[in-house]
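As noted in the main text, all predictions were made from sequence alone. Below is one such record, for Putative glycerate kinase.
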Amino acid sequence: MKKGFVIVLAPDSFKESMSAKEACMAMERGIKKVNSNIKCVHVPMADGGEGTMQSLVDATNGNIYSLEVIGPLGNKVKAQYGILGGGKIGILEMASASGIHLVPLDKRNPLITTTYGTGQLIKACLDKGVKKLLIGIGGSATNDGGAGVIQALGGRLLDKDGKELSFGGGELGKLHTIDLTDFDQRLRDISVEVACDVNNTLCGEKGASNVFGPQKGATKEMVNLLDNNLKHYANVIKEQIGKDVLDVVGAGAAGGLGAGLMAFFNGTLKKGIEMVIEYTGLENEIKEADMVWTGEGSIDFQTQYGKTPLGVATVAKKYDKPVIAFAGRVGEDIDILYEKGIDSIFGIIKDVTSIEEALEKGQENMEKTAENVIRLMSLKW
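Prediction:
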């Protein structure tokens, strides 16, 4: 290895075991045990889903804040939002405030669940003076088209009698008037980018209600009602706001939140991994490096579909950099990943163990595997 060898460490989190930042630190500890002269550049990654806020905040030396908001069932929950280093970009994951994990299985009902808390997180970011918002919209408990978000930011959704609609997708069929008189004016001065990896339209067979409604507690009858309500919602938006979101790819993400963000925020949808690559500055770091390490909890043939390791490898191959990936679990049919840019894959679990123990010892196992890889690389053939 040449003097001043540089490795970019760009793993995703290993869910329930270690964050992306902790994975970077464990990799570096293993590397430094063997060769203290290797420079390690930490770029904690994510794919736009859970952990994206944490990774981008860590990668940019930003800050995370907690806030009590209204949860999907109208109860109070503690949620988080982040401000990236520099203070001008806010980031949040709608699941933090409006996620399905916040609703017990026996209480899931998309007729009543709301995205109001997500709107409160957006307001908190605006209060910090941000000029751009990054929003991850996976893992929702809702099917309200983002109506709750609009209400939280001062918009009024009224029925034919001028009464405010209650929470939930079950109310959207009553929508008669959209009143944006008191809608937060600061939204005019910011740009909104939405991490979205689904291509579902708002309504129809591949729409939000039919595809995702059942996992949120919707019966067949509820799915039909919700689908019709979202179609009505889209028609009113087109008539009164002048935005046609009915058949836009991605509009059905997060129970139609994708449509709401496009219609009321001029939001643009981006693939999650592409957003993370951009805002972590990964490409600039890879340009100057000799090698790239990545990884996530499980690597298999599905990794090729927008997951972090392949996203990192795609950037690395633009500059002809070798890529090593690490995983807690190495699954089937990984040969396709070698064809797409990953040069070698290492499982980090060193012996037969329970899942609980493997998760608990994730950092220890990562450190030891990283050490062994560097020892192999240091051999004189």
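Residues 30 and 70 are 43 Å apart (CA to CA). The longest strand covers residues 291-299. These features were considered when defining construct boundaries for the mutagenesis experiments described in Section 2.9.
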